[in-house]
Every structure is written in C-alpha cells, then in structure tokens.
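Hey everyone, long-time lurker, first post.

I ran two proteins through the pipeline my lab uses and got sequence/structure pairs for each. Pasting them in order. The first:
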Amino acid sequence: MIYMKRKLTLTPLLVACLSCWCTVQAQSNKADWQIVGQDINPANYYGITLANGMIGLVSSPEPMKVKDVVLNGAFDTYGRGRVSNILKVFNFANMNLEVDGQRIGPKNIGNYRQTLDMQQAALTTTFDYTDKVSVRQTMMALRHLPFTQLSMVEITAKKDCEIVPMSVIETPEVLRDVKNFYSEIDRSHVTIRLLTSVAKSPTGKHTVAASNSFIFEEPHGQEPDVIHEDWDYNMHLAKFKKRLKAGETYRFSVVGSVSSTAHTADPQNEAERLTIFAALERTERLLMRHNAEWAKLWKSDIVIEGDPDAQKAVRSALYHLYSFVREGTGYSLSPMGLSGLGYNGHVFWDTELWMYPPILTLKPEIARSMLEYRFERMKMAKQNAFSHGYAGVMFPWESDADGQEATPVWALTGPFQQHITGCVGWSFWKYYQVTKDKDWLQTRGYPLLKEVADFWTSRVEREGAGNYHINNVIGANEWQENIDDNAFTNGMAKTSLQYAIQAAQELGITPNPDWKLVADNIPILKFPDGVTKENRTYDGVQIKQADANLLAYPLTIVNQEAAIKKDLAYYEPRYSPEGPAMGWSVLATLHARLGEPEKAYQWFEKSYKPNEVPPFGVLAETAGGTNPYFATGAGGMLQAVLNGFGGIEINDNGITQLKTKLPGKWKSLTIKGVGPQMKTFEVK
C-alpha cells in the first residue's frame, strides 16, 4: 500500500479556532482561571452569574437548571418600593432529563460538581445519575450575541439505557398573559424546532419573548424526533428520546434568545430570528466567536505572582465586571450587576465612583457606554433639577431605564444624596483624561459638565467669601442624614466645577466665571487639629463607609501625606464592621499609596474575604451578607490593586504610575492592556 502525502489547508475558520485554542491552552493550565463550587449545599448556595452585558443567568444547585434570568434595559413597576425594577424574564435555559423513565433530581445524583472557567465565561456542571449515566453540561451567555445563551450537553451511558432530554421554558410569576408556541421550520438541509413563549411585564408596559431550539450533531434527516408538550401556562417543553449503549456518549446543544419591547418593536419575531441564526451558526462557530470575544477582553488583565488566593479573587472581580457591561449599548452597571434583582437593577454612584474606574483603566471603550447611559438621560436629570428648584442637571440617586428618580419614597437618599451629580461629572472628565478624544469632549463631555457646573452654582447658599455652603444633604456616609457641608459632597462639587472649567478651556470656550468663584468658596471643614470634618455637626460617631477619606482618593483635595495619615488615623476606627465592602478598599488604596503595603494588604483582604459566600466565593455587600453579587465591592477591591498597589493614576497626563511597594506575599504585579494604547504596568 502506498501512502500519499496530503497538504493540509487551513481555512480562516480553522485558523481562528486553532489560534483561540492555543490562547486558551496557554492560560487554562493555571488553576487561578477556574472557580470550583466547593461542597455544594442547596440550602446554602449563592449562584455564580453567566452574563454578557445584556442577559444574566444565575446558576442553580439543581442539575441542569438556572435560578434566574435577568434582561438588562427592561424595567417595569413591581416589587420593592413601588418603583421600577429590572425584569426577571423567561427561564429559557432550563432542562430536564429522564433516564429509563425516571426524572433526575438533586436527591438521586452523585459527584455533583460545578466549575466556572473565567477565561471562557463558561460554567460546566457534571454529575452521575445512579449507575446509568454521567452528564456534562456547559453553559454560557454568548458574548458576541448579546441576547443569546448556549448550553452544550454530553451524556455518557454506563449501561444500556434510554434518555429523554427536555428543553424547557418556564415563566416567572411576575410575567402575565403568557402564550406558548411551538413550530418547525423545515428546509432541505435542516429542520429548526422553535420553542417560544411570549408574555406581558407586570403592568403591561413591555412585551417579553424567549425562544430556544436544539442543535443536533446528526446529519439532516437522522436527528431524533422532537415532541412538544404544553404542561401549563407557565411552562412548556420540547423533548426527544435516544437509546444509548454502555460506553456511548451522545452530544447536543440548546441555544436560546430573549428580547423585549425595551429593545425592539417585535420581540417575539426577534427572539425567534436570533435563535434561528444561532442554531444555523452551529455550536462550533458559536463557541469560536464567544471565546474570541472573551480573549479580547482578557487582553486587559491583572496578574499577581506569589498569592494564588488574591489572584483568583481579582480575576473573579474582573470577570464579573466584564460580564455585567458591554461596549456600544448605552447601558450602565447596577450594584448587583446582572446577578439578580438586587437594588432593583438601578444605577447609583456605585457605577461612577467604584465600578467605572477599573473599567476605564482597562476597557475605555466599555467605559464610554457607561457614560452614554448618563448622557442619554440628561433631559430627565434637567427635569429633576428643575423640580427641586435648581439649574443644570440633578442626576437621580437611583436611576432606571428612563433616568428618572427611582428611589423608594421612604429612602431619603433620593432627593438628598446629591453628590452623585458631581460623581457623574467627575467620571466624564476622567474619560477625557484617558482618551484625549476632543470630538467626544465637544459632543458629550463638555455639554454634560457644563450642566453639572450650573447645578452646583445654583445649589450653593452664598454667605460671603469662603462661605458658599451646600446644606441639607446626605453624604457618602448615609447614616448621617440632612447634614450641612458634607466633606465628600463639597469636595466633589469643587472638583466637578474645576473639571467643567478645564473642559471649556480645552475646547477654546470661555468658562462661566461663576464656576470658579463657587469652586473657590465651597469650604472643606476641619477639626481644630486639622482632621477633615465629615460635616458641620459631625461629632465622631460610627460611620457606614468612607466619606472624608475619599477626599484623598479618588479625589486629590487632601493631598499632603501628613494630612492623609491624620484623616486615616481618625476615621479608620470609626468605620462600622457592618459597612459595605468598598469602604475598606479605600483604606487599602490610600495605605498602598503611602508606602505601607502590609497595612494596605490587611484592608485589601478585608474588602472581599469576609464577604465571600458559598459555594463559589461570590461577593455579598457586607460581611455575612446574603445579597450577591456585589459588583460595587468588586470595583473597590480592583481599585485597591490597580490604583493602590499598582500605583496607576489618571490625571491630565493620561494614565501614569506612582511608585509603590508590594505586600510581602506578592512577588510581582503586572497590569496588562491599560488604556487605549494597551500598555503594561509592572510592580516588583
């Protein structure tokens, strides 16, 4: 027999797959890319989220289930506080499995294990059902298809058996007027089987639709027959039967999409079209494009050598922030991201002051989407200012899809926590400092900063030189209500006024002279010994979180080392142990910048370790809390690494680096893909 040599021709698709595979192999050998659900206990289980900036799927302790599905940008009035809430939508990713006529469930499976691969944003669940089958399911919210998820399933028979996999769409209680559909689109080369549900949001404001379909590996005409079962108004399914011999493995996928009238005029047809598109792309292409998008994201990464626990925690924080927001949407970040209904999915100062800075540093193109969210809602912010008797824009404390004030009326933070308007202005100038994009500054940055400045000049109460007070507010420390001349509020007002002046000058516009007059005359109060006073009547009581210390970071109003240390010494013992995670991260950042890495490391660990909940170590808002995932805390913890230990500074020179020292456990810190130039910063 003569063997002839064949030339291997690599198609563009195969080249891309190999390239992506090589990248994955180079990194996936490291255990710090994986989060394993340890000792899964359904009674003490806080799921990990698969998200792509549009849909969020929260894992479940039940086999082949998802706990919740959240859709970004879609809100209706229901639930907490008689205000808008982000929509919990159809669970279109659930599955059932019968083996020899018996339904599998938590009580009759063994070796249950769930592992999140952060690099590929994929959750793999494995388990055994008695002595008959082993199951492996990998699920992801596809990064390149914002409304679509993919589940890949393989079932291996340990002995001869019959399996009946079922793809299920379940309706949450909040949706009403549910209609279920099943259809088959038959072509000469493929048959698409569509399971679809359509419903109204709680008040009828939106129509929501979801659709899914099997992807079989068999050639057309040899796929198993699919049967549709309509069980109840809130659930229907599609299923098929397959006989397996001992040792045989059967593979298939389920792809599904969700949409609403918040995104398109015709969500039913859109969900079905998107599902058909994904089904005809086939599993391999979907996986290739999803992995390629995440490979782009991970070009901006943080590498810690010498501390695997910290490395994994930092990667987890980055993974979640990358998952919860995306480029080109005009959507922003809620404190709980897309991990559920926490804080109703509203946007707070948590976005601009805590989550935005790491994203701006590593992914300015995504940061721009977050700013667009605020810009598109300026009209409502102007109305809010007008309603309260002020000029310019007054951004709401809790912002929903429309940008109106969505804080429950019993929470005084709504009308009084006005520092958020300064935070928004601050974030806009920071973007310009990083990108130097003058077109953006002219069309987005300056128009907003001008309105922010006009708000503060109308907001101050003028009582002579040095006495332009901002009275009757709630500061960052929310436990002190209706106070005067709050340190952080005054500091952010001064800073955003100065940024508005700079923005005008950058564009050759003469700034309003009143902006400087007001900025120069807003006081920062001090105790007799020089310690920054949190507000006019502050008397040393326990505080919820950072306030006065924020004037040293991220603001630079308190900028002398002795003054920073004096403020830290005074306020550190006054932080409440029940305070939110990001308060501790400010202390870590400041101590790192002061050249005190060991003390900084203690606060850094406190900013996340006590807040980790089982089985994946996702972050709760407070130590011992039960409301994960707290993306605000992740943002603060990342700032401790980037801006504290890493010394990264955003100023008028762009992104620069201060000299810092690492804690003894860390051999090196490498920050990759920083800013538009994708620079690398190192500390050793």
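...and the second, right after it:
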Amino acid sequence: MLRLRPLTLALCLALCAAAHAEDAQPSTQPALTEQTLHSGGPMPAEQQRVNFDHAELHFTVDIAQQSLDADARLSFSAREATDSLLLDLDPHLAVSKLSVNDKTLANDKWSNPDGRLRIALPKALAKGEKVVVDIRYGGKPHVAKKAPWDGGFVWSHTDDGQPWIATAVEGEGCDLFWPCIDHPQGKPDLVDTYVTVPKALAAPGNGVLVDLKEHGDTHTYHWRAKHPTTYAISLNIGPFEVLKGDYRSRYGNTIPMQMWYLRGHEAQARQLFAEFPRMLDFFERQIGPYPFGDEKMGVVETPHLGMEHQTINSYGNGYPRGEYGFDWLLQHEFSHEWFGNQMTNADWDDMWLHEGFGTYMQPLYGQYLYGDMPYFSMLQNERSQVKNAYPIVAGRSQFEEDVYDAKRGPGNDIYVKGSLMLHTLRQMIGDEAFFESIRRLVYGRPDPKPGNFTPHYATTHDYIEIVNQLSGRDLNWFFDVYLREAALPKLETRQDGNTLTLHWQVPHDKPFPMPVEVQVGDKLLTVPMNGGNATIAAPAGALVIIDPRSKLLRELPHVAEYQQWRKEQAEKKAKGAK
C-alpha cells in the first residue's frame, strides 16, 4: 500500500488524494463496527480450522443508488474437525439468504451482529471434508472518505460526468464488500469475480478475463485469480479503454500487459505503458520471475492515488514526469506483486516485509536505471522522514491500525526505516547474499522459475533465518536493534591526541558489533567494533570522515535538527492559516 508521503511529493499526494474528495464523501453513513474496523490480530480458532478453497463472487452495482447486490459462493476444506464457520462481513451489508451445501439455513443458525459472521454447520466437518456456503447480501457499502488511507468504495465521475468507481480496502479489510477471512493468512486458493455493469462501462479485475457475457444493456466481466491477497481483490468500473501488449521474459515465458485508462487519457497512458517492460526487466533481473506471469501485469486508472491490487494495480498519480525518470508510485505498487502478493506477511506485525522491501525497490530501480545518484538521493529523502517513535516489529500479533497508525505504532517507519535498514544490510553482507536472501524470502526457494513456486506466507523470523544461513553469521543482533527497538544506534566518537575512539550507544545496551568505515586522510579503514568499541590512530588535525560511503543507518544529530525545524515551520504555517 502507499501511505508514505515523501517530502518531494507531498503536494502531489495531497492534490491526488483530494482530487475527488467531494465525490467520495457520503452525506451520511453508519459508523463501522469495531470488528469491521479491525483487520488481522490473533486469528480465531474457527478460522484456523479451515482452508479457504474458492470464492465465487457476483457483484451488481447500482451506480445511481451507490449500492451493491451480491452473491458469494464460498468453499472450504477442514484442516481439523469443526462444527462452525467464522467469516467477516460488514453487518451494514444485510444478509438476505444463507445456505450450506445448497440447503437454506434457518436464521437462528447464523448471526452477524458486529461484523463477524458465525455459521453453525448442520453437520460437523471431519478433517479433510468440504463445505460450500452461499451468501446473498447487499446494501450501501462503506464509502472511503480519503482512499486509500481509509477503506471503502470511491464513487466518482470523469470530467464528462461518467461513473468512475473503485475500491480500496487494505486498512479495514476485505469484509467491507465481501464475506471473507479478514486476516493476512485468510487468502483463498482461487477467486472468481463476476461484475455486472452497463455496457458503456468496463470492469477490469484481478487475474485473467475468463468471459464477457452480454445481457441487454449490461454485460458481466468474469475474472479469475489464483491465491489473491484478501485486500488485493478490487472492483473497478468506468469508461475505460485498454492498452495491451506482451513481455518476453528472461525466464522464457510471455507475460500479458494491460493498462486500463480513462478515455481521453490515451497519450499519457501510452507513456506510462511504455515503462512496463523495463520495470518487469528490473524485478525479474534483480529479484526473480514475475509471480503472476500466467495471468497479467495489469494497471487501472483510479480516482484514488494507488493500491497494490493483485495483477490490476490501482494508479491515480496523474501521469507526472518524475525527477528520477520513472513513475515512483507505479513502481512501488508493482513491487507488491513480489512483496505482498507472492510473499504475504503472516501477521500485520510483519508488514515491514511488504513496505520496507517495497520502498527499497525505488532507490534500487533508480540505481538500475541511472546509477548511484538517484539511489542515494532517494535514500536521503527517506532518511529525513524516519521517526523512531515505535519499533518496526512489536513481537506480537497486531491489527492493521496498530502498525500503520503513527500515533500507536511505527507508521511510515515500516517503509522508510525498513528500506534504510535493508540498504545497511546489503552493504554488510554483500550483494550476492543480499539478493539471494530476497529470492528465498519471496519464493521460498533459491531457484525460482515459472511454474515451480506458488504464493506463500512469511514472517520476520523467516527472513532473519535466511540471512543468517546465507551470510554464515548470527546476525540476530542486527535485526534486534533495527526492528525491535524504536531508537537508532548512535555512534559516539572522541578524539584524544592522535587517537580516535568509537563507541556504539545502543538502546538497552544490546550487543551491536557493527563494523564502521572511517576515512583518515586519504586512507579508508574498516574498523571492527567487537563489543561495540574500538580505537584507531588518527593524527590530530587529519581529515576524518565517519562512514564516508553512507553505509550505516544510525542516529545523526543534523537529521534530528532538520526534522525539528520542519515541524516548527509546519506549526507556524498552520497557525497562520487559522
């Protein structure tokens, strides 16, 4: 997801987010229940007992009434014996009929008072048995006030007054418009979506287009996606045209590419579409095969800024020309096909695996395109945003808002601090081990090829174990300080005559034997910091530069001073506006 607001792009983000705010604001709507507001947390035992085999979702959208009429046919297999199913669905979407294995269930056998849909099965399932649940429901879905920073439907229109509709539900979860398991580990194995819209409109979706059926003045798009992330299933409706092409992958397969854009935006869309092949080349060269090559690389123009909807990434960045020579938003959202959709965090507490890696892909892409200048420029931009208010990883199961809300969790640090930590790790273990560690994290194996891997879940612990194995070292101390402490390590230096003393000051005095490069005169020294301390010869008056190649993520007083000044300027501006 894109919640990061880089300084150089703050105005763009504000304008893009506000561009259709008037359309997105409902006059009145009921408040979401606490259950529906939450996404993730400890997974209930009832949900752990089943595998989500298949979701068949039928949506008919009443644009004039801004309402939804839907049917969901959901298939599950029992991992262990169970006598109930527990799903998530916004209770404001009223259920009118519910059946199990094609037999209507009495109303007293199911309930959904707060958004947790509990279904008593007519017959208990033994391990390995299957069950199919049909749910007919509908109503006015929750409207996002400021997508994608909060979730829901976006009811907008084009400049010539035609409907333009999108969904973005990462924060509050999939239960805002379909009955699901609203947890990172709740992904169905297969999803078929059927979206019925007026013939003047199109409905691009996740996965591959299976069929397009005509019904008088409407038509129905049937899309099929394998192993989609729950919040990455989306609805998109508008007067779209589509650009299509094929990418010949270095792995021997051919990847379909699609760009769904608003009529009248063809020139800009073609310019953006031209970036697709080099982005694919970068990721396949640097990380590995595009995970959904048998489906598509897809992008759809949306009335909100963006979101990593699997194989149909939302894009509302306005087609700018960027200072780094590429569209940073598209590149970030596309990175989530690897970090989010192929490798999915097992818990929201592991969300830095999506956002930290996803953010580091922009400096890496700048380096791939134009060398070190954009790479370090983007890292410097990230460095000025690190807050260090909360640890990136809490070490316990979390709700989405516990992570993304900067008042209660790490917020943007899962992006920028995660990215900068990966830069430091890369410098410490070297490119070969670093990029191999990413491949194993993403694919679960060192030799990914199209057809020999499927999407999977991963944890912070999984990645640490991979790095330890590949580096041949125990680097738990590295991750312990950067991920589990709020404050950054501080390198203290003291010059006594011809001797320079270095000392790592670390929260809770944790071990941190991070080597430090020091330039003394025209010589570059690599200083071991066993025990967190070292002394080196440095003649008085000699030029001394600590970390001259900017490898280390550490506390820097001038950054803190700049951040404080920026905060004061913002406060003055806010007072002046009142």
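Reply from user beta_strand_b:
Welcome! Quick read of the second one: Residues 557-577 form the longest helix (21 residues). The mean pLDDT is 95.
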